């Protein structure tokens, strides 16, 4: 039996996902493949590299560092998430990825990105994070629109996978998995509202397909949530989502709030372990 795991993004709401993944690893929940989006991809790699606590550790340690993420990085580099600090210093020096374990893991890992020319999602398998293109695809998956420059890989321009496919339930259902676990980062009653339709047309005027995708994002997101709810009722998938609303910013600097979100992920998962084990 093959088990697939779908990880929604949500920037620092992803601390919920980190709590879920750490609890999975501590309780020997076996996953065969992961499809991650944005923060779901950035944090999901730690399951494949078997590094319990790493994502929580480096986020809480460096979130207040001006070179990590935020306004200083954006105004000095053009990216809210600093490329050199996040994808060089942290991953290689300050809190290194276990590249060898990641490479040798039998878990398939896919990151979702949005192609700026086509406006469509691409789901790219990342086998080796020491490969520059693989690491750039991972960076692209979490590069938020308006706050990040395009990430260019093989002459293609990419940004945040959540733009084109925030919760790629259709994609993972098409993959070769017998059981599917979905980790969301908002409570069950959340639905996305229509955003400003004019600003994207101005800001990304050179990419009309991308603009269309951004402006239709709320519709697709809500449709995916409805589909997930229906599949959950039919017991075709297993869903973990925050059991309560916690107010947390996309670029949250308050480490207490990060820990609160992480702890919620841990506790919700522990409460659901029996049901999860029965499902899988």
Tell me about this structure.
With 280 residues, this protein is of the alpha/beta class. Helices cover 46% and strands 14% of the residues. It contains 12 helices and 8 strands. Strands 1, 2, 3, 4, 5, 6, 7 and 8 form an 8-stranded mixed beta sheet that branches. β5 (151-153) and β6 form a beta hairpin. α1 (15-26) packs parallel to α2 (39-48), α1 (15-26) packs across α12 and α3 runs antiparallel to α12.
Write the layout of secondary structure elements.
Blueprint: E1 3-7, H1 15-26, E2 33-37, H2 39-48, H3 54-62, H4 71-77, H5 83-94, H6 99-104, E3 108-115, E4 121-125, H7 132-141, E5 151-153, E6 156-160, H8 169-174, E7 179-183, H9 198-203, H10 208-215, H11 217-233, E8 238-240, H12 255-279
Parallel strand pairs: 1-2, 1-7, 2-3, 7-8
Antiparallel strand pairs: 3-4, 3-6, 5-6
Round the mean pLDDT to the nearest integer and report it: 96
Number of strands: 8
Calculate the terminal CA-CA distance, rounded to whole Å: 9 Å
Order of helix and strand elements from N to C terminus: EHEHHHHHEEHEEHEHHHEH
Helix content: 40-55%
Main beta sheet, described? 8 strands, mixed
Rg, Å, rounded: 18 Å
Q: What overall form do the CA principal axes indicate?
A: globular
Structural class: alpha/beta
**Oligomerization:** single chain
Strand % is 5-15%
Number of helices: 12
Low-pLDDT runs: none
Keywords:
280 residues; 12 helices; alpha/beta
Entry summary:
The protein contains 12 helices and 8 strands. The chain is an alpha/beta fold and 280 residues long.
